[in-house]
Design brief:
It contains 24 helices and 13 strands.
Length: 563
């Protein structure tokens, strides 16, 4: 298959790229990734990506708990270490088993911080190189393919996700799926293995890629019906075979994900479309970017999915117009326009008027009801990469070549990313790092942080990792079922005590019925409640509810009466 032309793979491919050229491109991409992440490479286990919010804590917990479960002979698809005593369905979360499992030795020996930055680095560089490899074998010369691959691996949305979402950074499998291959059993097996592997890297990415190919194929069928029908006849059996191979590998894990303990359906994100102004703006890490302007046009810094910048958009429109006689260019341009429109979400504002968007009808479909719609703009990234590569190769006459290179450089320079911002994480309190918690907590019982762990407070996940998972945590930062319908939500279903803790944290009243407090502590199998030193408001609240706590290793501690 190929992303550009649905023709039989017997078509001649371009000359193979020389080894030294391929190596030079790979080194260049890897160097760029290291430069972007050099701040965290300096101390992977002691530094934190500032714009990740609590996501780095969550991801490191996933990597560590995967290693913990496997090395202790436990099920890696489920854990009660978070959301005690109900647990977390790890297959239904972004545990990224395709890398967290093979990298267990790295996590166990060097720490999950090394695993985290290694995945991000290889994800950026590997995605760029995979697209370069596909482009150079089918679409463009090596220099043009290198520029196209560079954009695909380091596009503004990729840099945004590199702060917090490695599942949207490690995308190398997608171009590998699109390499031209002859129909037959071997291709079916290869495609089936690649699809299965992508499921263990990120299912949402696979869904977006499949949707992009489906829309591309539909437009291609309208523009080139004979060519499309020939492709379908030749590859139908191969594609069905690939599906069978995939299903044989992933059937049991997917059954666990959708029907196992703590499974859920439909994860709502609210309205999360891209405003039209995002497409012409620069993201927070671009040379020409302004974080305040970018964040006013996005959900959060890790979801700046449509920030291509106006110079690049003008260049892409110019390429499509200049090469409009080529059917593949027209098809790619239409596909990009459709996905840009889809990514605006349920409605978009045009000249002060809200216009209903196509997502309003699509968002109720199975699987799509859990997609963050602004991410649909990421389907445009490889399309732009392809158009850049094709456009560069069209600069044949010398008198146009230098002008063309200047225009392309001027369009790409403003979106060149700057290194990501890092901060020192700081050590875990001595109560956890020195093992002082063992004097208060029995095996299999929980420590209750106040405020509890959730998407706004991921520090307890670091404390638990420092304690080598010697205790469980109530609540947590994960996705699980909420309410009787089993609809997905972030974190645990709030219990009265958790709600009260957050009210106090936000300046509210410290009040809860003793019976409710006791019932929640019993439900959590809690042996101790802890508050980090310095949180005087929370300490005062718990002193009033439970009596005076003890300051131990940087934490205020209230032992729970054991029953």
């Amino acid at each position: 298959m190929t992303v550009v032309e649905l023709r039989p793979a017997a078509q001649p491919t371009r000359p193979r790229v020389g080894r030294w050229t391929a190596a030079l491109v790979a080194v260049g991409y890897l160097t760029a990734a290291v430069v972007l992440l050099h701040g965290i490479w300096a101390d992977p286990n002691g530094r934190y990506l500032w714009d990740s919010g609590q996501d780095q804590n969550q991801w490191q917990w996933f990597f560590d708990v995967t290693a913990h479960q496997v090395l202790n002979g436990q099920n890696p698809l489920f854990s009660t270490l978070m959301n005690a005593p109900l647990g977390v369905n790890l297959m239904a979360n972004t545990a990224m088993f395709g890398l967290s499992l093979p990298l267990i030795p790295v996590t166990a020996w060097l720490g999950s911080g090394v695993t985290w930055v290694l995945i991000l680095t290889l994800g950026l560089a590997g995605t760029a190189y995979a697209w370069f490899w596909m482009f150079s074998r089918r679409l463009a010369s090596a220099p043009a393919a290198a520029i196209g691959g560079l954009f695909c691996g380091f596009a503004p949305a990729m840099i945004s996700h590199a702060n917090a979402h490695p599942n949207f950074v490690v995308l190398a499998v997608i171009p590998l799926l699109l390499l031209p291959r002859p129909p037959g059993r071997r291709t079916a097996i290869v495609l089936g293995l690649l699809i299965a592997y992508q499921i263990f890297l990120g299912e949402e990415v696979l869904l977006l890629a499949a949707t992009g190919l489906a829309v591309f194929g539909l437009i291609h069928a309208i523009v080139r019906p004979l060519e499309s029908s020939t492709f379908v006849r030749r590859y139908a059996t191969t594609i069905l075979g690939a599906g069978a191979v995939t299903l044989a590998i992933v059937a049991l894990p997917l059954a666990w994900q959708f029907f196992g303990p703590q499974s859920y359906h439909k994860l709502g994100h609210g309205s999360a479309g891209n405003p039209l102004g995002a497409f012409t703006a620069f993201n927070s890490w671009a040379l020409a970017g302004d974080p305040d302007t970018a964040q006013a046009r996005s959900i959060n810094p890790t979801e700046e999915n449509a920030f291509f910048g106006w110079p690049l958009l003008l260049l892409v429109v110019g390429i499509v117009i200049a090469l409009r006689k080529q059917p593949k260019v027209r098809i790619l341009g239409i596909t990009a326009l459709i996905f840009a429109w889809l990514s605006t979400g349920r409605s978009m504002e045009l000249f002060g008027v809200d216009i209903p968007g196509p997502w309003a009808a699509i968002r109720f479909l199975p699987l799509y009801d859990s997609v963050v719609e602004s991410r649909l703009a990421m389907v445009c990234i490889p399309i732009i990469g392809i158009l850049l590569a094709i456009g560069i190769d069209q600069l044949k006459p010398l008198k146009f070549r230098m002008l063309g290179y200047t225009v392309i450089a001027a369009a790409l320079l403003p979106i060149v990313p700057v290194p990501l911002t890092v901060i020192d994480r700081g050590p875990a309190p001595e109560f956890f790092s020195a093992g002082l918690w063992r004097d208060y907590v029995r095996p299999g019982h929980s420590v209750v942080p106040a405020p509890p762990t959730n998407g706004a407070n991921g520090a307890p996940l670091q404390w638990q990792r420092e304690a080598n998972f010697g205790f469980t945590l109530p609540d947590g930062y994960f996705v699980g079922p909420h309410g009787p319908t089993g609809k997905g939500g972030y974190g645990a279903q709030p219990r009265p005590t958790s709600t009260m803790f957050w009210q106090v944290q936000d300046g509210g009243e410290c009040a809860i019925a003793p019976a409710r407090l006791h019932a929640d502590l019993q439900f959590w199998r809690a042996d101790a409640i802890v508050v980090q030193a310095g949180n005087e408001r929370m300490r005062t609240c718990l002193d009033g509810l439970l009596g005076k706590g003890s300051l131990v290793g940087g934490m205020w501690v209230w032992p729970v009466e054991r029953s």
